[in-house]
Structures are given as C-alpha cells and as structure tokens.
Amino acid sequence: MKYSAISYVWRGLGLLPSTENRWLKIKQDERGDRINVEVLCHAAAASLHRGIPHIWMDRLCIMQTNTDDKNWQIRKMFGIYQDCSLCIVLPGGMQRLVRLDEETTWIHRGWTLQEVLAPPEVHVLFEWRLGSGEARGGEGKLQHVQEVMIKESAMASMPMILEACTVGYLSFTSTERNQAKPYMVKAAMFSDIESHSYNDPPFWQPQRKVLAPNIAALTVAMDLEGIFDTTAKNYAIWQSSLMRTSSRPVDMVFSIMGLFGVTLDTKSFSRNDRLCATMALASEILRKREEASWLGVAFRIAPCRYLSTFAAFPQTSVAGKALVPTKEGGQQVSHLITNEYPYVDALCPMPHGSMDEHGYLKFEGKAVPITRLLQKAEGSQTDQAQVAPTRPSVITAVDGSRWKVRKENDSLEQAVDSGARPEVTGGAEAFVVLLGWFNEYYPGGTPAHDANNIRAMLLQEHDPEGRCYHLRSYVYLSQRTYSWVKSWKEYPFLVGGPDTFTECDGTESSSSELVEIVVPEARYPFPSSSRKDVTLRDQVIRKSRWAVDQRILENMLQSPPMERLCDYAESNTPIHYLG
User: Fold this and answer.
1) Residues near 379 by Cβ (< 8 Å), separated by ≥ 6?
2) pLDDT of residue 180
3) Judging by beta carbons within 10 Å of its beta carbon (0-12, 13-18, 19+), is residue 123 exposed, middle or buried?
4) 3-state SS, one letter per residue, for 358-426
5) 61-78: per-residue pLDDT in tens?
6) Where do the Heterokaryon incompatibility domain residues begin and end (predicted)?
C-alpha cells in the first residue's frame, strides 16, 4: 500500500491573528497542538500530487495513552517511515503552514531526524504564493518547486531546502513569469533566529545565521548525492541527534537506533535512562563490526563523566532546544558544534572494537605518549610550531591543558610496553590517540586551507590496575603533521568512565532546569571584492545579506505596478537578484 508519512512537531508555531480554521481534536491527547483541517488538506493534496492516496500520521495512528501500543509502535517506527512512498515535512507543526523565512523548531526535535533519513523521498510543504519554478540552495543543483494549492502552498525536496537554509537563501526562477535572473528568497525555516546589528551591511538587513551546524549535520546525514561515505553519514547522525531534544531522554536513543539497523527492547529502559540505552546501542553497533562513529561529534563539549567516549548529554524538553551546562551557564549544543566531518580516505578509519557491560570501549589505535605540563613552559605553542611544525613537541588540547610529547626512546613508552607504571611528572599516564582527518562542510565545495584537519583524542589513565583510560579532551593538529601521525605506534586501549556506571541514575541531566545564557556572537566583516583572503564563509554571508523576505517579494510581485512601487518605498527593502 502506498502512503505518505507526515513529519511535524507536536508543539509548533501559533496561528496568525484573525485566522479562522476548522480543528481536529484528538481524544485523550492533551500534549500536542490542535490539528488544523486546512493543513491536513494541504498535506493530502501534496500526497495526491505524487499519486499517493493514503497518509500516515502518528497522532492519528498510534494510541498515545496505551503504553503497550506505544512501545510496540516505537520499535516499528523506523520501518513505518522507511516503507512510506513519501515523507511530507510540516516544519511549523499542524496549526498552520509556514514560509521559508520563518524559523521553526522542527530541526530541534528528536524524532524528526529518523523521519527524514528513513524514507526514500522527503519533501517540505510550506506556504508559497510564487507558483511553480526551478530553484537551488547555494551552489546546489537546480530542482523543481511544485505548487500544491494555487497561490497558497508548494513543496520542494528536503535536501534543497536544507541547502538553502545552510546558506541563508533560495534562488528561485518562476516558470510562470519572465525573469532575467533568479530571485533570492530568504531561507530560515530550519536555522536559528538571526542576529541584528546596525553594523551589518547593508544596514537594513540583519546578519543571517548561515552554515548552522544543525542544518549541516542533517544535510550530510541525508547525502542524497552520494558525496559522503558511511562513516561521515553515521557521524552526522550522532551529531544531529546530540543537537536535538525530546520530552523523554531515552527517546533520543530510540529515535535513531533504526538508522543503525538496531532494535532495542524499549521496555528494558525507563524514560530517563538515556545513558544505559546509549551504551546498549553502541554495543550493538560495534557488534556489527561498524566504527565508533560517535567519537568526536562535539569537540568543544566536555565528555560524559560516565561514558567518556560520548559527549555530555544535553538537557531535553518537549519544546525547547538542547542545552548543556558550561562554566558560564547553559548553552545551546548547536553553538558548540563545528561543521566538520571525518574523511576516512585521507588518513585512517575511525576506531573499531567492542564495548563491555560497564561502557568501556576496547580498541587499538595509533598513539603517542605525553606528559602534562603543570606550568607553562618557556616558549608558547606557536613558538614550538614554528620550530617543528611537522613534529610539535608541545601540544595544547581543546580544554586548554598543555602536554609534552615523549620521545620514542622515553622510559614511559618502554614502561607501557612492559606493563609497568612509572611515576610521571604532572599526573597519570596519558596518550594522544589518532582519530582521523576532518573536512569542513560547505554546500558544493570543501575549503582548501589548513584548518588543523587532523584530530586526535587525549586519553588519561584513571585506573592503573585495570589499565583503564577516560577521554579527557581532543587535540587539533596541522596538516603538516601528516607523516608524523602516520608513524605513531599502535596501542591497545580501554576507554570509559571515569566515574562508575552504577553511581548514576541513567541520565546526566541536572534536576534543575538549565537557563540558557546569551553568548555574544561574532560579527562577520562584510568582505570586499578586493580582498585576497575572501573565504567560502565570507561569500555565503555576503550573498545571504541580500536575500529578500518571502512575504515582501510575494506582495511586490503580485501587486499592480503602482502599488508595487508604494510597497517598495514603504518596505525600504530592495529586491536583489542572484548575479
């Protein structure tokens, strides 16, 4: 049976003023928004446009108040979306359709990740009065925008809309009017709220949040053009999941297990047992001889104190954004993530191995022993890099700690080989373990500059008798160290903890609500065409600032010439074309 599955958020955007609609209320379901019958009609029309006569929607097809039915359905959820003919994404929820330039919370919800990665085809349904046409996001390929209801709605492929939100604009050419060049329509449906500053050039346009990590991660995970390998896509799944949230912490595991070909017994875990469920999922993935692709998904977030190969788990909620505690306060996970993904062919695969019942990852990896520098040694890391850029003697980790690299004939390495444990100045034994080569993501290209692409884990011993280590931080190394890291010796490691698994209650989340702090964002300079160091990011920012709000563009194009001129004067916003 052919059917379309609906992907939406239970608590979406509210209605606009003076909007009259018919509503569908689900009995014994008080957690979600009311269902607007008009939105359902648009979804049905979109499905029929593709010749698909049925629709599946969780709130209509799952008995939400029946625990047995819900547990059974959760185990089957991946298959439901995998077997559908089309997934229709309603980013704003079931109360109304949203425009391309409206921010939604869809990309922050846990279950929506699986809902767009499992189906064979995914389209976004949105409010649209510009008719059918051809469009692209950034430098992506040209794709079709299909009008669904005349002058009301349209749908387009999810990858294209993601690319548009990544760079901040969609270039659109209508098939219904003569256009010399494409219109640049602002795209913010899956991105964060933009930042405003009077310094942003042009002064009437705010700075766009382009190249957002949550959008980039989902784009890489979908990878319909076949650019990325399995390692990069699995890494992106873990990364995207970390930036999402759910009312039940354990659902953050259940919502992605099917993507890795794993089915856990959902009855074996309580609603807050994200930690144990994560360990169970990781164990099953490794048992299938797959890589530990979760390593390094958040270089700037402190490791989990019970399961250190994973980043600390965010606090989850039904309608908020994923937050992690920092020294300053709660911060959005997406603000601490980088758009970088492993490139296995450039250096080495990510670690394989196994995970024991205590959450310890057992694997072998190329490594070099190091010693903690308790006081800043004479000469900075920059000095060391200038003296020996291909083989640094001092390394600074992401957490700010500084370490001296031991020579091959040093007593520590000999001691590790023999099983003895000598006294080490500055603390316990520690290693820098090669993780791999990482490239920055950009739609349609890869930056060529040296971005310290080689990444490594900093492991520190906490149990000498069991030879157990925990992941303390990460290390960035220059491309120039390539030959050096390739020459590192292989060592066996057992990494987990450092706190014992029985000391936790299954979740790291604090009992108190995290309060998000406001972090001042970097103001990007408007790049001049005469500059020689204009980067891909500069180019994206420059173009996105000239994108036009969708509603302004629609009003101006559909008004008579004289009214259009008045609208132009009142809006003080010019229409710009992609040139």
Assistant:
1) 394
2) 76
3) buried
4) CCCEEEEEEEEEEEECCCCCCCCHHHHHHHCCCCCCEEECCCCCEEEECCCCCHHHHHHHHCCCCCCCC
5) 877 677 787 788 888 899
6) 3-92
On whether both 179 and 254 belong to a single domain, the answer is: no
DSSP state of 442: B
> Residue 409 falls within a domain, yes or no?
yes
Q: Is residue 196 located within the same domain as residue 220?
A: no
Cα–Cα dist 329/159, whole Å: 34
User: Can the peptide bond before residue 498 be classed as cis, meaning omega within 30 degrees of 0?
Assistant: yes
Residue 487's CB: how many other CB atoms inside 10 A?
A: 11
Q: Do 233 and 161 reside in the same domain of the chain?
A: no
Summarize the chain as % helix, strand, coil (round to 5): 30, 25, 50
d(CA 384, CA 266): 52
Q: Which domain holds residue 363?
A: 216-503
**Phi and psi dihedrals of 529, rounded to 5?**
-65, -15
Closest CA to 207 of 546, 552, 550: 546
324-333 CB contacts, 8 Å cutoff, 24+ apart: 324/514, 325/510, 325/514, 326/517, 328/517, 328/519, 329/514, 329/515, 329/516, 329/517, 330/514, 330/515, 330/516, 330/517, 331/516, 331/517, 331/519, 332/243, 332/516, 333/242, 333/243, 333/298, 333/301
Distance between start and end Cα atoms, the chain: 46
* Residue owning tokens 């593709």: 50
One domain, residues 458 and 565? no
- Tell me the residue type at 1: M
| Cβ neighbours around 421 below 10 Å, total | 15
10-residue mean pLDDT series, the chain (579 residues): 94 75 71 86 97 93 77 88 98 95 93 96 97 90 95 96 91 86 92 51 52 91 82 97 93 96 93 95 97 97 97 84 88 92 95 96 97 66 56 94 82 44 53 96 68 94 93 96 96 95 57 70 53 65 82 83 45 44
Residue 296 to residue 287: CA distance in whole angstroms: 20
User: Tokens for 575?
Assistant: 């229409």
Token pair recorded at residue 452:
């310290």
Give domain status of residue 8, yes or no.
Answer: yes
pLDDT at 203: 43
Residue bearing tokens 């992605």:
256
What is the count of structural domains for the chain? 2
Verify that 298 and 223 share a domain, yes or no: yes
Give the residue from 274, 365, 263 showing the smallest Cα distance to 311: 274
Strands 122-127 and 402-405: unpaired
In terms of domains, do 301 and 327 share one? yes
